[in-house]
Amino acid sequence: MSYYVYGFLYLPESCLALPKGMEKEVELVPYQNIAAVVEANVSIEAIQETEEKLLEAILAHDRVVREIFQQVSMLPLRFGNAFALRENIINDLQNNQQQYLNILTKLQQQAEYTITFTPVSYPSTLEVSKVRGKAYLLAKKQQFEQQQAFQTKQRQQWENIRQLIFKNYPKAVFRDSTESKIKQVHLLANRDARVITTEELSTWQTECSYWQITLSEQLPPYHFV
């Protein structure tokens, strides 16, 4: 059995509502002004026995981090961090205290926001099935050229908005899906997301009419630790 660690936070001055983890309620393991969010007696081998158990554990990890993040700033860890002994956690906090505190200071009152850009499908309006012969070939050629022009414009819009976002958010993390052609941008911004939701998001959508843009809720800053 291991002590599973979800993340680190400033030692809170008041009580937190600590959620249930994979099996039992999580606890805080403190060292001076910092603490680890821990679940005791977790079998790493057991949660990896089947894909179903592994998925449940991953979802539980994400849920715990999100519930605590809603209450306080947190340095979230990726799934799978565990220590054999409680003393090992304290030693880790002692050895890396300043590093963890520096990151927590940077993340104070900050949240991650994921902007998803979904490409709009080419709006084909030509009914080529109603024409024959040379007219059919001409219609198909025109349709192909229009589709190519549409896709070129779509790529140009993405490159323009990518540069604009990078200018305003130089630490933005970009991720492309080669299969679905969906683009995602991870931003670190103040927990008050009104600027993103009302001003910037509206501007980006105007600049990217060939893309559908959606904004996530506030997320733990996984991509910035």
Tell me about this structure.
- The protein has 225 residues and is an alpha+beta fold.
- The chain has two domains: 2-107; 110-219, Alpha-Beta Plaits, CATH 3.30.70.
- Helix content is 42%, strand content 24%.
- The chain has helices at 44-47, 51-69, 86-107, 133-168, 194-207; strands at residues 2-10, 27-31, 34-42, 75-76, 82-83, 110-119, 173-176, 183-190, 211-215.
- Strands 1, 2, 3, 4 and 5 form a five-stranded antiparallel β-sheet that branches.
- A hairpin with a 6-residue loop joins strand 7 (173-176) and strand 8.
- Keywords: Gas vesicle.
- It comes from Trichodesmium erythraeum (strain IMS101).
- One of its GO terms (cellular component) is gas vesicle.
- Pfam families: GvpL_GvpF.
- Belongs to the gas vesicle GvpF/GvpL family.
Mind sketching the topology for me?
Elements: E1 2-10, E2 27-31, E3 34-42, H1 44-47, H2 51-69, E4 75-76, E5 82-83, H3 86-107, E6 110-119, H4 133-168, E7 173-176, E8 183-190, H5 194-207, E9 211-215
Antiparallel strand pairs: 1-3, 1-4, 1-5, 2-3, 6-8, 6-9, 7-8
Family: Belongs to the gas vesicle GvpF/GvpL family.
InterPro entries: GvpL/GvpF (IPR009430)
Subcellular location: Gas vesicle
Keywords summarizing the entry:
alpha+beta, gas vesicle, five-stranded antiparallel sheet, 5 helices
Structural class: alpha+beta
Helix content: 40-55%
User: Number of helical runs?
Assistant: 5
Overall mean confidence score, pLDDT: 89
Distance between the termini: 27 Å
Element-by-element helix/strand order: EEEHHEEHEHEEHE
CATH class of the largest domain: Alpha Beta
Radius of gyration: 24 Å
For the largest beta-sheet, the strand count, sense and barrel status come to:
5 strands, antiparallel
Q: What is the domain tally?
A: 2
- Give the second-level CATH assignment, the architecture of the largest domain: 2-Layer Sandwich
Number-wise, the strands total 9
Proportion of beta-strand residues: 15-25%
Shape by Cα distribution: elongated
Low-confidence stretches: none
* CATH topology grouping of the largest domain: Alpha-Beta Plaits
Protein name: Gas vesicle synthesis GvpLGvpF
Subcellular location: Gas vesicle
InterPro entries: GvpL/GvpF (IPR009430)
Family: Belongs to the gas vesicle GvpF/GvpL family.
